[in-house]
Amino acid sequence: MSTFRSLGILNYRIWFFGALISNIGTWMQRTAQDWLVFDHLTAHDAGAMGITLALQLGPQLFLAPWAGLLADRYSRRKLLLITLVAMALLSTGLGILVLLGIAELWHVYVFALLLGIVTALDAPVRQTFVSELVTDEYLPNAVALNSASFNVARMIGPAVSGVLTVVVGPGWVFLINTVSFVAMLWALKLIPASSLRVQPRAAAGKGRIREGLRYVRNRPDIQVVLAAVFIVGTFGLNFPLFIAAMVGTQFGMDAGAFGLLNSVMAIGSVTGALLAARRGRPRLRLIFIAAGGFGVASALAALAPNAMLFGLALVPCGLFALTLITSANGYVQSTTEAVMRGRVMSLYMAIFMGGTPIGAPLVGWVANVGGPRWAVGVAALAGVSAAVVGLAWIIRAKQLRLRFDRRARGLRHFRVESLLARPVTDEDDDGGPGPVR
Fold first, then answer.
1. Distance CA 404, CA 3 (A)
2. Tell me, what's the pLDDT at 301?
3. Which of 250, 348, 368, 436 sits a CA distance of 20 to 30 A from 131?
4. CA distances to 25, 31, 93, 164, 184 from 160, in Å
5. Residue 402: helix, strand or coil by DSSP?
6. Is this prediction's pTM over 0.85?
7. Cα–Cα distance between 264 and 261 in angstroms, integer?
8. What does residue 402 show for φ and ψ, rounded to 5 degrees?
9. Domain Major facilitator superfamily (MFS) profile, which positions (predicted)?
10. Phi, psi (degrees; rounded to nearest 5) at 304
């Protein structure tokens, strides 16, 4: 099965490369903004970084239901044009303030909040727009390639941004990001509206948001995925904060090292995304295995005695994190009815991104009080906890138990046994949609 099979579809290929360029600019701005707050506007205050992240990602919690309904009701292509222009204007405004030398911390907070509002509207639209570019058969692969694109950009953007932040300052980085949005707008212009797959639209009327919530309430498999995503997304995926604290406070290094280590982590992220693209249907058990792997890798990062070993530990952190995220995203999208997809994905994005207002300030406080290593330790605990939640659900949903066999040897003494009338097959172990006994 080809890893890049979705790129054979012209519309998706145009979208992929436009998004890649735009994502590079976005990661450049994120890195420059983080370092602007951490090193230029504060005295290495991880708590201020946490507040910035919370303001930028917090609107997901409040706007997600309406954003998902917009994605299910209106033209996703037109909605994307609006959100992309808005994000370009915001990066321009913040860049001008920084270049004029009048930017203060509260300015960054305001722009982070405004960007968060636009991003909250953009996220479910962008996620579900892929289903208009490819068939359902190609959808998991296209979702995984989107993650690969995002993380190739994450590998390139922070490294370039780290150098440019040192050489010319963060203001110019923000303006470069403005230019990168042109690539995405041009890609949308090249994709004719008439060539997009027609998707069912949610009917007008009251109760459409509640309809989406009821759908998720009747899907326990999606519920457990959302629980795992919330735990890891809230307390584990605060790596801009973790890396800044370890680089600046623990190892005494500069913005160049901060950008480089972000890029090093992205090596693992890209690998995880490409492996997900090569696989077929996303599997539930892989989500929880990846969560456990992320917890172990984060523990190794927390214990790293120097920057080199810390960087090496970031590679498996990125690999397991992206395996979890991509598999969870692909599973939810590919098993959700098309007419409900926008609302379900908005809830997914709200839980994934919107948990940051809770986690980022807390983790920033841990970094300030206990030190950077304890903050990374929070990520390790989050990964292990998500794995335990997933394992407990699988055992309960499939009615499994661990049985001791005296006649066997070694670890073969123990085997998993089903309490159902029929045996649990490999297909059942994936926890696909359907009634749970």
1. 41
2. 92
3. 436
4. 10, 10, 21, 6, 20
5. strand
6. no
7. 5
8. -95, 120
9. 1-401
10. -60, 130
Is the confidence at residue 423, as pLDDT, over 50? no
H-state helical runs in 169-247:
170-190, 208-217, 220-235, 239-245
Please report the pLDDT score of residue 398 as a whole number: 67
Cβ neighbour number for residue 155 with a 10 Å cutoff: 20
Per the listing, tokens 């997901």 go with 60
In this structure, what token pair is assigned to residue 212? 């989406």
For residue range 60-84, what is the model confidence (pLDDT) as tens digits?
Answer: 777 877 887 787 888 888 999 999 9
**CB 427: neighbour CB atoms within 10 A?**
10
Measured CA to CA in angstroms, residue 317 lies from 30, 98, 226 at distances of 19, 33, 20
Q: Which residue has the tokens 């949610």?
A: 202
Q: How far apart are CA 41 and CA 32, in angstroms?
A: 12
**Contact of 314 with 261, CB cutoff 8 Å:** yes
State residue 414 phi and psi, 5-degree precision: -110, 135
Query: Is residue 338 scored above 60 in pLDDT?
Result: yes
413's tokens? 């003494």
> How far from each other are the two terminal CA atoms of the chain, in whole angstroms?
34
Token pair in block for residue 381: 């605990």
Please provide the average confidence, as pLDDT, over all residues in the chain: 82
User: What whole-number distance in Å separates Cα of residue 174 and Cα of residue 171?
Assistant: 5
Coil/strand/helix, residue 13? helix
